[in-house]
Write a structure and sequence with these properties.
Length: about 120
């Protein structure tokens, strides 16, 4: 499955780790923004949106004081992508986390994507 992984820029080491775990389970990451080295934010924003559009699913790593990742999350929902959310010890009461397209991801060390949620969406790996 092609997956876009979003998270807070200052948490990019953890997000990169999650990307590698997902890849080890056979998933393709549509854009590794954690390795993006340009200071051109416009270019970064355009590439992020292209990568979300190429994805079969969206994976959000929630941490405190996120900004851009919420925008990406909204774009994924608008595109009708199934969204998997991993809370990194952070509680969030965003109303859109209750949307039917959103499922809580299990602990990545065990199973990176909630298999039951994948079956509900009829997503095949």
């Amino acid at each position: 499955m092609k997956i876009y992984v979003a998270g807070k820029w200052t948490n990019k080491e953890r997000v990169s780790q999650i990307m590698r775990i997902l890849e080890s389970h056979g998933h393709e990451i549509t854009f590794d923004w954690t390795a993006f080295e340009s200071n051109d934010f416009r270019e970064g924003a355009i590439e992020d949106m292209r990568a979300i559009k190429r994805a079969d699913a969206f994976y959000l790593v929630v941490s405190e004081d996120m900004k851009g990742a919420w925008t990406e999350f909204g774009a994924a929902l608008a595109l009708g992508l199934p969204c998997y959310v991993q809370h990194e010890g952070t509680y969030c009461n965003n109303i859109f986390l209750s949307h039917p397209l959103v499922k809580r991801a299990f602990t990545l060390d065990e199973e990176p994507i909630n298999q039951k949620a994948m079956e509900e969406y009829s997503i095949e790996e």
